[in-house]
């Protein structure tokens, strides 16, 4: 697509990967609406990126409906959804509480589903649209202490495949990006230690890929792409 014609919603974009994707798209000429749950961070991000912003919790359907209403009011229409909002929950199987498991699913799966469901209504009606779901390399392979997070990201891959099959006849491209470890505050919030930071991926690399995937001529699309650091050790 022509990025200058893109009218984009990026969820969970007050920092990290979402912030960089929103910024890269805006610099390329797109109109962008972002959302987040923290009013202060949202105001800072919208000012810095020159984008529109609205407070929204992606796990709440009413907030998602209002997000799209706001986006259409500001941009006239929507033709791109970047489903980025997500949280990390890690721990051994024995120590992972039902509440923590549910928390990961509320944001990473239900939130992604609600945003995609609303996008589908508009994209089917206008016979055009683009969805990028931000997955993870944890959507490809499990590992110790990853039950809640990995399960939620495997679900993202399943949703992406279902949506692709369902929406492709309506001229809607459904894509997925699977980053490996990326240096953002996501890592600190999840209680993990950052090692060899200089050799790890930064949000800018994921943003580069998102813009590239959208920039491909609409006759084709990249179903999914994984991004790994070259030498993270």
From TrEMBL:
Gene3D superfamilies named in the record: NAD(P)-binding Rossmann-like Domain (3.40.50.720)
Domain of life: Bacteria
Domain Ketoreductase: 6-180
Record PANTHER family: DEHYDROGENASE_REDUCTASE SDR FAMILY PROTEIN 7-LIKE, RETINOL DEHYDROGENASE-RELATED
GO molecular function, one term: oxidoreductase activity
Source organism of the structure: Mucilaginibacter aquatilis
One Pfam entry name: adh_short
Protein name per its UniProtKB record: SDR family NAD(P)-dependent oxidoreductase
Family: Belongs to the short-chain dehydrogenases/reductases (SDR) family.
Coiled coil location: none
Alphabetized SUPFAM superfamilies for the sequence: NAD(P)-binding Rossmann-fold domains (SSF51735)
Entry keyword set: NADP, Oxidoreductase
